[in-house]
Design a protein that fits this description.
- The chain has 194 residues and is mainly alpha-helical.
- It has one domain.
- It is built from 7 helices and no strands.
- Helix 1 runs antiparallel to helix 3 and helix 4 packs antiparallel against helix 5.
- The longest helix has 32 residues.
- The radius of gyration is 27 Å and the shape is elongated.
Length: 194
């Protein structure tokens, strides 16, 4: 039996075999990683801040007797807590959208970053103004704890917002996010079937 003519294999008689299909480039993992961090950090704030707010109100008489915070500082603390709840809700939504690879997630993370930074700076400024009134009635260990809490709280308050502002300004990240506008929307279940 003579050999088959060129490009004639079983299943493709008389036709050239199809060119191997190019595999789609692998999807980057950072949207899921950063999105999950945003979801966890936002959910953490949505759980912890209301608990802190309730305990602040419930223990206000005790705290007032111990340290005599200025009246304006207690009001500010409640307003700040309510604003932080709103900011953490924005972060949670941004994280969910990032996991789903929605282009709007970048803008939401920018809004979160700038608003969280601004609120942290304002909160630290108000605390620094109130410290002379408060610290005069504190023991040495309490003053040290106040300053340690202020430094650690400030670091935690600015770390992730600064990360978000830097991360979403990177050219490579912006270019990838632009491609998400061209991709068809996928359901949450479809993301995990790949």
């Amino acid at each position: 039996m003579p050999p088959p003519p060129p490009h004639q294999d079983a299943g493709y008689p008389g036709m050239a075999p199809p060119a191997p299909t190019e595999a789609a480039p692998p999807r980057s993992a950072w949207p899921i990683a950063v999105g999950v961090i945003s979801i966890v950090w936002g959910a953490f704030g949505l759980v912890c801040i209301p608990i802190n707010l309730v305990s602040e109100v419930a223990l206000s008489d005790y705290v007032e007797q111990q340290w005599q915070f200025p009246a304006w500082f207690r009001s500010w603390s409640i307003v700040q807590s309510l604003l932080l709840i709103a900011i953490d809700a924005v972060l949670l939504v941004g994280g969910i959208m990032l996991v789903k690879r929605r282009a709007a997630a970048a803008g939401i993370h920018f809004a979160y970053g700038w608003s969280a930074l601004a609120l942290t700076v304002i909160g630290v400024s108000f605390t620094l103004v109130a410290i002379p009134d408060i610290s005069g009635r504190m023991e040495e260990a309490e003053r040290i704890a106040l300053w340690v809490g202020l430094v650690v709280g400030t670091a935690l308050g600015v770390a992730y917002p600064i990360f978000c502002l830097i991360w979403f300004r990177r050219r490579k990240i912006r270019e990838e996010i632009r491609t998400w506008r061209k991709e068809p929307a996928e359901t949450f279940g479809q993301m995990y079937q790949q």
